[in-house]
Amino acid sequence: MWYTLLGLAFLSVVSCHYTFPDLIVNGTTTGDWQYVRMTENHYSNGPVTDVTSSAIRCYELDATSAGLAGIATISAGSTVGFTASPPIFHPGYASAYMSAASPSANSTSAGLGSTWFKVWEWAPEWSASAGFTFPSNGQAQLTFAIPKNVPSGQYLLRVEHIALHAASSFGGAQFYISCAQLNVVNGGGGTPSPTVAFPGAYTGNEPGILINIYSVPAGYTGYTAPGPAVWVG
Q: Mind listing the pLDDT tens digit for each residue in 132-182?
């Protein structure tokens, strides 16, 4: 009996967590880990909680994840995204970053520097009368456009959902992350900025990461997204 209860408890925890295993390109969902680096949580669904860990970058299973995933060719301006498996279960903040990938998107050295720029975000909404609402909660897909002026070349595309249900103490925010490997064609002449590094973009003390969503201070005016501003391109 006890091991049955433990097993049910484990399954309950896993079902509350999620991964982003599939890249979506112009409405077509690709296969599990076909173009997405397999993540360490591909079985457990568990999050990253240490923003200083290298796992905050792409949360890869190991050094083979990059080489095992393919590189998807897309046009700048295309609609892309990720599936959530299972659907997002926690209130939080969603965003996507890109990094030019040198020497290639399937290289383990890609994305190691201050090369990441934010291309999209979906923030919690706040009103004094209704409190917080979390549009990303319950979503089975997160989709957005690749900036049309991003230069052609190979990139990593990083999706991140920061679950905030336990974020009232330091280290309580939960980061669900995946990185897809892209070859962008028909690009423009833009200069993506500002750029940040992972780890390095967050300290864990940002008001959008260390926050009690159930009890905000008097005069609270709304959610402050962590990280850089979105490059609209």
A: 999 999 999 999 999 999 999 999 999 999 999 999 999 999 999 999 999
Distance CA 37, CA 179 (A): 6
Query: What digits encode the pLDDT tens for the residues 68-114?
Result: 999 999 999 999 999 999 999 999 999 999 999 999 999 999 999 99
Bridge partner list, 25: 28, 80
CB 85 within 8 A of CB 139: no
Give the tokens for residue 25. 């390109």
Q: Are strands 141-145 and 125-127 parallel, antiparallel or unpaired?
A: unpaired
> What is the longest distance spanned by two Cα atoms in the chain?
63
Give Rg (Cα) of the chain: 18
- DSSP bridge pairs for 93: 162
Closest CA to 67 of 33, 22, 23, 16: 33
> What's the whole-model pTM score?
0.93
Count of C-beta atoms within a 10 Å radius of residue 104: 14
Eight-state DSSP code of residue 46? P
